[in-house]
Amino acid sequence: MLTHKTGIDYAKTLDELDPLAKYKSEFHIPKDKDGNDLIYFCGNSLGLQPKTTKTYINQELNDWANLGVEGHTEAKNPWLPYHEFLTESTARLVGAKPIEVVTMNSLTANLHFMMASFYKPTAKRYKILIESDAFPSDKYAVESQLRHHGYDDKDGLILWSPRVNEDCLNYNDLEHILNTQGHEIALILIGGVNYYTGQFFDLKRITTLGHKAGCKVGFDCAHGAGNVNLDLHNSGADFAVWCTYKYLNAGPGSLSGCFVHERHANNKNLNRFTGWWSHNKTTRFNMRDEFDVLPGAEGWQLSNPPILSMAAIKASLDLFDSIGMETLIKKSKQLTSYFEFLLKQLGEDTIKIITPSNPNERGCQLSIQVLNADKNLHDKLTKSGVISDWREPDVIRCAPVPLYNSYLDVYHMVDKLQTILKH
Ligand SMILES: *Cc1c(COP(=O)(O)O)cnc(C)c1O
User: Fold this and answer.
1) Looking at the predicted structure, is the pLDDT value of residue 316 above 90?
2) Thinking of the domain 8-50+325-422, which architecture would CATH place it in?
3) Model-wide pTM > 0.85
4) Which residue's CA is the nearest one to ligand 1's atom 15?
């Protein structure tokens, strides 16, 4: 852990030295009823709105108003290939090749589309392995896939669980599961960063272990994209999905990103659900061709996409491009390390951080277990102007986001928490 100091002057100094401090003013920061900025630590749930988003969306609204259907080809950013304007930035963001990524659908829908291709159960190998604390939607999706293929969802689900009195997952346990039951497992689906504990998994290690056991491996990177270095191509994963409304700040319910590894790019025999947007672009509008699938991740698209939502994604990706993930992660590590330092001053008999202490095994989120607390504490924290996330029974999830959170935000948050804990 980096060493820090406790006083408010130290926080102010860190903000003055922070080359990314100016980006806070590029975002709309929610305010309390007196007009004061709230301390927003919920970017892991819904990222804030960049001030440029409106301009990007207005461009498309205006082109639609002025051009109608002609906008498909005549808009400033023609709608027909609009999703392609996101490809290079998305690839950089998640460490993929352009052919491996596409923006389409929403997240849980993409999970299903990926499972249509990469969950191919047989009588001997039909089980799916997930984290015991997987995000509920992922668990529901996996269970329904098991049932869809005629399997029992209890029998078919294998959980990778933490050890007694531990919160995070241990790779030795995964190895043990794969050594003993790997031959029955068709698919491993893990959250790249666990939504609850904030544990950032070693994607390459999991993929290597999974492939060695003959399983397909996919990741849900909803809490990873825009937060950590995912390096998806080098991980070797078969597929990955994520959303763009958490760390990617593209607005509520915005579209999902999808990664399919290059080695599957030209495999026309993979089973998949298709639509006209997965069809060859040059003959798509002949409207009667035999289906001819596009190479790469684009070949999993179904529909012509919602341009207004994509415009918001473009606004956000341009911001990420102007900084670069490496620079962002550098600040993120320092900001979260400072947060961790201040929280530890509150005393181990009061709070316990369940997120890994190793900066390479987490993103910006810290999950704080407050001993003997209930939702009352979180309500007080909210009333004091801190927006965070409460998970029963006793965990506050806080994400100081390097794009728009300051060191002073962190200082004030812990100060308020301390005041509440004392009363
Ligand atoms: C946020 C999140 C979801 C939400 O799914 P939607 O389909 O976007 O509603 C699903 N899975 C994980 C891991 C998430 O973090």
Assistant:
1) yes
2) Alpha-Beta Complex (3.90)
3) yes
4) 222
